[in-house]
Design a protein that fits this description.
single chain; 226 residues; alpha/beta; Rossmann fold; two-stranded antiparallel ribbon; 8 helices; 7 strands; 40% helix
Length: 226
């Protein structure tokens, strides 16, 4: 089976993600990022449910933007046609079908990112303004570096695991075959290339939720003001 997949540019501009460009206000803004199926949602859920911290989730914004009858969803349908629609509703996107297209074709992925990323950034900024009284905010942004959103964060936590773990988790979570899952993983910049930009690397390579102590310790740490 041949694929049109072309690897992404595997470099990141260090100057864009330096700590000098970070948020320096009094609010602690923790950016959570990592690769697909690395465990970001598990960490965010822990911070929300067990620590009571508010979460701003870029993936949720994307889902809202691509919901039924939105301007973005209509634009996407016009671009890719009926093959990306649910079989039982001709106005609801089939996210797996859309994923098969964008993860195997860099040009189409960039097109979708250029459509969504500015709108996601605006939603994040709007909610940051409305939640300015919260002492700590969690910003869960999978493509934090790629979308150049590090300036919204005061610190960055990278959820780390190995590629084999990603593959198994992704296949189970999204009901993908091995080929589909590998294409999605290979479309992203490898986790190890993002280590240099993170303030904390959360080890999710071990037993289930073995990262909790590491997260709790970091939460208790009061970072110095800028």
């Amino acid at each position: 089976m041949q694929s049109n997949f072309k690897p992404p540019d595997m470099t990141l501009d260090k100057s864009l993600h330096s700590k000098e460009r970070r948020w320096c206000g009094t609010q602690r803004r923790i950016g959570i990022t990592g690769g697909i199926a690395s465990g970001k949602s598990s960490v965010a859920q822990f911070l929300s449910k067990e620590k009571g911290l508010p979460i701003l989730d870029a993936d949720n914004y994307s889902r809202e933007l691509l919901a039924k009858d939105t301007i973005c969803s209509k634009t996407v349908i016009k671009k890719f046609g009926n093959s990306i629609l649910q079989s039982n509703d001709n106005k609801i996107l089939n996210r797996k079908a859309l994923g098969n297209i964008i993860f195997s074709n860099k040009i189409e992925r960039i097109w979708l990112e250029q459509l969504l990323h500015p709108l996601v950034k605006q939603k994040l900024q709007d909610d940051l303004v409305s939640m300015h009284d919260s002492p700590i905010l969690i910003l869960m942004i999978p493509l934090l570096f790629e979308a150049n959103l590090t300036g919204l964060c005061s610190e960055i936590w990278l959820i780390d695991c190995n590629e084999d773990q990603q593959l198994k988790r992704l296949m189970k979570r999204d009901n993908l075959n091995n080929h589909e899952a590998k294409i999605r993983i290979k479309s992203q910049i490898p986790l190890h290339k993002k280590h240099i930009f993170a303030d904390l690397i959360i080890n999710n390579k071990g037993k289930r939720q073995s990262w909790k102590k590491q997260v709790e310790y970091q939460l208790s740490y009061d970072p110095l003001s800028c």
